[in-house]
Design a protein that fits this description.
Helix content: 25-40%
Number of helices: 20
Distance between the termini: 74 Å
Strand content: 5-15%
InterPro entries: Catalase (IPR018028), Catalase_clade2 (IPR024712), Catalase_clade2_helical (IPR043156), Catalase_core (IPR011614), Catalase_haem_BS (IPR002226), Catalase_immune_responsive (IPR010582), Catalase_large_C (IPR041399), Catalase_sf (IPR020835)
Shape: globular
CATH superfamily of the largest domain: Catalase core domain
Catalytic activity: 2 H2O2 = O2 + 2 H2O
Bound molecules: CIS-heme D hydroxychlorin gamma-spirolactone
EC number: 1.11.1.6
Radius of gyration: 29 Å
Keywords: Heme, Hydrogen peroxide, Iron, Metal-binding, Oxidoreductase, Peroxidase
Number of domains: 3
Cofactor: heme
Length: 716
């Protein structure tokens, strides 16, 4: 086809040249849509002032409501249509605004504008999610977490739509509907919610060995992060980065949380379903409100094109990761999440991510899972957000200006001026015009990849290894993590009703990861696992590495107590000085000390002061905090020891491997609760000073791992 004679030689339009985003561009862009009712009259959507919002218009006070009551009809009409379809996966989520700032290193690999200037902050909107459950399901279920980032760059939106696990369940997107049907609540009774512990999931994954690696990740404690700030993120697929010289390199994206990684304990996660179903979203919301922002480093693993085939797996296979020991993660920037949305629906619910949203300098590969995703997201958004104009919804609009000849359809907001809505045209001066490709011009240029192949419906033999990286992951776990994984398979399979599915997992899948894993889970189910691997050699594959320390959650523990929440148990008669000292010392370290009392009534301290509790024992139970300090004061400790809730508080904290400090008489509560005094992770002292340093060191390791086996004895 002939080239458009009106192609813009230098830029994407005369008005677009000087456009530059700042950290605040997206917020400024949203400002014109924000609505604050303070000081305003109540009106209909047509602007009519409403005089009575309590009574519908009737024929007589006790008579029928009249059709002509336009105020009533408008209100009900709007209400009746408030809901939109929830996302088919990742329905439950929480999001925050922030910014991304590149490091010097970033510009080496990609010409993308957001990576060029270390002084530049690009606005982002990040949505975290679970996958299986509906919008109203619990936060702390055993599941993958979505980690989707929209970068509002000078050159348009880039969406990095990743998860908190670096691999996926399937290799080809054509299996995605099968996988999702299998994991979702079962179709006949819509049970279970937010769970993979059911027949259809285990039936499918045990018939699809390629899912083994990812299933193993979901059976690890990664499946219920302590906080979104303690979660890694991964772009999963191998992407391409294109530098200013036009050179392409393969790249895997990583988000590394600066606060370290840590998770909940399974029993704790389950209890949180009832105690605080909003646990993760509440923590993120509260922290941002308190100025304790979430921070992550963006990293890339770079593979030169000539090294594509140097690995013992295929870079295009999304069930494989590149061990960090083979290709280090190079940090290329930092992201800070520092602002909560104003409105959940308008922003978090209506945001539409799409891995196909890329900017010049970022490109795709032939990963068949990625290729399918490039179709699916736009498609689902048509239904969920009601048609092709969802890009005009404020949260989805790029901050960069955009003009094209797309027109009309439902709810079109843009008022396109001019007569020509086609290109080329000579009526409107040829605008909007194409921009030539290349870094100096800015037009998007797809990577110049040669493809010369037969059309086949097939899978590459290089995708045949289904187990070696599962074994690598297993080998990389600490003993405690391995125990948790064994317990997870045991629990999940206990919920599977059909015996042949349980058998298939134990006899045909687990031995190929590790014989001991299979034996232990088998033992718990009364099923004898095979004594040798059962899969064919090509499925077992080979890994050039026996283990990868980076795959253990313990590799990046927080190391300090910043952002941690600590219960300070207190009742009437408590030693008020100890409470004050504990609070102050925790705060100085960036943690939060919360005074937890039997009720919300002010606590009368022994020193005559009154202390306002932050919460009461069953309002903020131990599962919602990271550790416990029992303050001294004979009366207070006696009251707590005589209360089931007081005893349960410390027992549960003990069971969930939390550091526990008891000051003065506080130790009596521990002995009343059956908690050993002389044990790692239990700190007794006459003053807060006596215990504070070892107590916080233990908290920095997140949990008292040495207690793991013993904690099961605690009946809490
Ligand atoms: Fe997906 C949503 C991540 C494979 C189809 N996906 C969705 C979200 C995340 C991911 C984080 C939620 C975004 C948000 O917060 O709104 N998905 C992934 C990752 C995958 C993956 C990391 C594998 C590497 N997804 C995948 C495949 C398909 C989809 C193979 C289909 C071929 N995903 C969708 C979807 C969703 C979605 C149905 C539901 C809601 C939406 O897109 O907007 O299109």
């Amino acid at each position: 086809m002939a080239k458009n004679p009106h192609t813009n030689p230098n830029s994407d339009g005369p008005h677009d040249q000087d456009f530059k985003t700042t950290e605040h561009s997206k917020s400024e862009n949203l400002e014109k849509y924000r609505s604050d009712a303070e000081g305003h009259d109540l009106r209909t959507n047509q602007g009519i002032r409403i005089s009575d919002n309590h009574n519908s218009l009737k024929a007589g006070e006790r008579g029928p409501t009249l059709m002509e009551d336009f105020i009533f009809r408008e209100k009900l009409n709007h209400f009746d249509n408030e809901r939109i379809p929830e996302r088919i996966v990742h329905a439950r989520g929480a999001a925050a605004h922030g910014y991304f700032q590149p490091y010097q290193e970033a510009a080496r690999f990609s010409k993308a504008g957001l990576f060029q200037d270390p002084g530049k902050k690009t606005p982002v909107f990040v949505r975290f999610s679970t996958v299986q459950g509906s919008r109203g399901s619990n936060d702390t279920v055993r599941d993958v977490r979505g980690f989707a980032t929209k970068f509002y760059t000078d050159e348009g939106n880039w969406d990095l739509v990743g998860n908190d696990m670096p691999v996926f369940f399937i290799q080809d997107a054509i299996k995605f509907p099968d996988f999702v049907h299998a994991v979702k609540p079962e179709p006949h009774n819509e049970i279970p919610q937010g769970q993979s512990a059911h027949d259809t999931f285990w039936d499918f994954v045990s018939l699809m060995p390629e899912s083994t690696h990812m299933v193993l990740w979901t059976m690890s404690d990664r499946a219920f992060p302590r906080h979104y700030r303690n979660m890694e993120g991964f772009g999963v697929h191998t992407f391409r980065l294109i530098d200013k010289q036009g050179k392409a390199r393969f790249a895997k994206f990583h988000w590394k949380p600066l606060a370290g990684t840590c998770s909940l304990i399974w029993d704790e996660a389950q209890k949180l379903w009832g105690r605080d179903p909003d646990f993760n979203r509440r923590n993120m919301w509260d922290d941002i409100e308190n100025g304790d922002f979430l921070e992550y480093e963006l990293g890339v693993q770079i593979v030169e094109e000539e090294d594509e085939h140097k690995f013992d797996f295929d870079l295009l296979d999304p069930t494989k990761l590149i061990p960090e020991e083979q290709v280090p993660v190079i940090p290329i920037g930092k992201m800070v999440l520092n602002r909560n949305p104003d409105n959940y629906f308008a922003e978090t619910e209506q945001v539409a991510y799409n891995p196909a949203n890329v900017v010049p300098g970022i490109d795709f590969t032939n990963d068949p899972l990625l290729q399918g995703r490039l179709f699916s997201y736009l498609d689902t958004q048509m239904l969920r957000l009601g048609g092709p104009n969802f890009h005009e919804i404020p949260i989805n609009q790029p901050v960069a200006p955009f003009h094209n000849n797309q027109r009309d359809s439902m709810h079109r907001q843009t008022i396109n001026k001019g007569q020509a809505s086609y290109e080329p045209n000579s009526i409107d001066g040829g605008w909007p015009r194409e921009t030539p490709a290349g870094p100096e011009n800015g037009g998007y240029e797809s990577y110049y990849e040669r493809v010369d192949a037969n059309k086949v419906r097939a899978r590459s033999a290089s995708f045949g290894d289904h187990y070696s990286q599962a074994t690598l992951f297993w080998n990389s776990q600490t003993d405690v993590e391995k125990e948790h994984i064994i317990a997870a398979y045991t629990f999940e399979l206990s919920k599977v009703e059909r015996p042949w599915i349980r058998e298939r997992v134990i006899k045909e899948i687990l031995p190929n990861i590790d014989l001991e894993l299979a034996r232990r889970v088998g033992e718990n189910h009364g099923i004898e696992a095979p004594s040798s691997k059962t899969a064919p050699a090509d499925e077992l594959g080979t890994s050039s590495q026996a283990d990868s320390p980076a795959l253990s959650l313990m590799a990046r523990l927080p190391g300090n107590i910043k952002y941690r929440k600590v219960a300070i148990l207190a009742a009437d008669g408590v030693d008020g000085d100890q409470v004050a000292a504990a609070k102050a010392k925790l705060e100085a370290e960036g943690a939060q000390g919360m005074v937890i009392a039997p009720s919300m009534a002010p606590v009368k301290a022994a020193n005559g002061q009154t202390i306002t509790p932050d919460a009461m024992l069953n309002g903020m139970p131990s599962v919602t905090l990271d550790s416990v300090i029992v303050a001294g004061g004979a009366e207070s400790v006696k009251a707590l020891s005589q209360s089931g809730q007081g005893l349960y508080y410390v027992q549960e904290a003990y069971k969930h491997l939390k550091a526990i400090a008891a000051i003065g008489e506080g130790k009596d509560l521990l002995s009343a609760a059956g908690i050993p005094a002389q044990e790692e992770g239990i700190f007794l002292g006459a003053t807060v000073d006596d215990v504070f340093t070892p107590f916080t060191e233990a908290m920095g390791k997140h949990r008292v791992w040495a207690r793991d086996a013993k904690a099961n004895m605690m009946p809490a």
